[in-house]
C-alpha cells in the first residue's frame, strides 16, 4: 500500500491509495522459504561412496561442496550465509540447503558389471 498515490477522488478530495500485488515467479534451480534457499545437486555414485567435492552454484558464486564418504541420496547439507538477504538487515543472509541426489551409472561396460558383481559378493544381502 502506497498512501496517496492512487487515483484522484471523484468528489475533489485527496487521491486514494495505491495497492501493489507482487507475484514472485518460481526459480528454475532454487526454492525459497523465507531467507533460506533449497536446491538439489546430482552426485555420482563414486563421489557419494568415497567422498569428494562437487561444484554448486549459489545465487552469486560457485562453491566446492565437500561430500563426506558414504553420503546417502536425500542427505541435506547446509551452506551457511548463501541464501537470500534479509529484508530487515540486508547484511545478513539466509542459508542454502543442498539436497544430494546420487546418480547411478548407466550403460555399464562388461568389465564394470563384473566389478559390481564382485563387490556384491563382498557384502551380505539385506532386505
Main attributes of the structure:
127 residues, 15% helix, 6 strands, alpha+beta
Molecular structure report:
By secondary structure, this protein is an alpha+beta fold. It has two helices and six strands. The chain has helices spanning 45-50, 110-122, and strands at 31-33, 36-44, 52-57, 62-67, 76-79, 96-103. The strands form two sheets. Strands 1-2-6-5 form a four-stranded mixed beta sheet. A two-stranded antiparallel sheet has the order 3-4.
Arithmetic mean of pLDDT = 92
In DSSP terms (H or I, runs of 4 or more residues), the helix count works out at 2
State the order of secondary-structure elements, H for helix, E for strand. Answer: EEHEEEEH
Helix-strand category = alpha+beta
Strands, helices and their partners?
Blueprint: E1 31-33, E2 36-44, H1 45-50, E3 52-57, E4 62-67, E5 76-79, E6 96-103, H2 110-122
Parallel strand pairs: 2-6
Antiparallel strand pairs: 1-2, 3-4, 5-6
Summarize the structure.
Helices cover 15% and strands 28% of the residues. The chain has 127 residues and is of the alpha+beta class.
Amino acid at each position: 500500500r502506497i498512501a496517496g498515490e492512487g487515483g484522484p477522488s471523484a468528489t475533489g478530495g485527496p487521491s486514494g491509495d495505491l495497492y501493489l500485488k507482487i507475484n514472485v515467479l518460481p526459480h528454475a534451480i532454487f526454492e525459497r522459504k523465507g531467507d533460506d534457499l533449497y536446491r538439489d545437486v546430482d552426485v555420482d555414485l563414486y563421489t557419494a561412496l568415497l567422498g569428494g567435492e562437487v561444484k554448486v552454484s549459489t545465487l552469486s558464486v560457485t562453491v566446492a561442496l565437500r561430500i563426506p564418504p558414504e553420503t546417502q541420496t536425500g542427505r541435506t547439507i547446509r551452506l551457511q550465509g548463501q541464501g537470500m538477504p534479509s529484508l530487515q538487515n540486508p547484511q545478513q543472509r539466509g542459508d542454502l540447503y543442498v539436497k544430494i541426489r546420487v546418480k547411478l551409472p548407466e550403460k555399464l561396460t562388461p568389465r564394470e558389471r563384473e566389478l559390481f558383481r564382485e563387490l556384491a559378493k563382498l557384502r551380505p544381502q539385506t532386505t
